Amino acid sequence: MPSVQLFDGSLPVEQITNKWYEEFKNSNYGAIITFVGVVRDEDGIDGLSFDIYEPILNSWFDAWQEKAKERNAIVLMAHSRGDVLNHTSSYIAGVCSPKRRVALELIDEFVEDFKASAPIWKYDIIAGCREYALDRSTAIEGAGILD
Q1: How confident is the model at residue 145 (pLDDT cuts 50, 70, 90)?
Q2: Could you tell me which of 46, 61, 43, 41 has the C-alpha nearest to residue 1?
Q3: What residue spans define the domains of the chain?
């Protein structure tokens, strides 16, 4: 079963997506869909920086593999640790499925849930310094101080 791939710095997009294609093209999947997230040049940032809590990320990803398996599909994911400059990639998601409609639906659900639930903290890089991107962050359900 595929696992999360983590890289230091910007992702080597062509290497990752080509490897996924080569690995799964003969597995009788009629659809192999990828989503590549690119860091935008906005609000005066030089890029983004990411911290990841890997045990929870792996559990979240494994749960998604089970959801995909119920639909005869698999999900794929690569993400950056550390600094990623503007106009480079920090996130790639993929879905392989025998059916196009399943792959299209799953990639949308997977990417949206990733944005809402993955234990990845985002920082803006401004003038070489990391500043927590609070206004673009989503609280993870169940996280926080216990009463």
Answers
A1: very low
A2: 61
A3: 5-132
What's the burial of 30, exposed, middle or buried (CB within 10 Å: 0-12/13-18/19+)?
exposed
Residue pair 94/77 in contact by the 8 Å Cβ criterion = yes
What is the largest distance, in Å, between two alpha-carbon atoms of the chain? 52
pLDDT in tens, 52-106: 999 999 999 999 999 999 999 999 999 999 999 999 999 999 999 999 999 999 9
How far out from the chain centre does Cα 137 lie?
Answer: 15
Cα 97 to the center of its chain, rounded Å = 18
d(CA 147, CA 138): 20
Class of the CATH domain delimited by 5-132: alpha beta
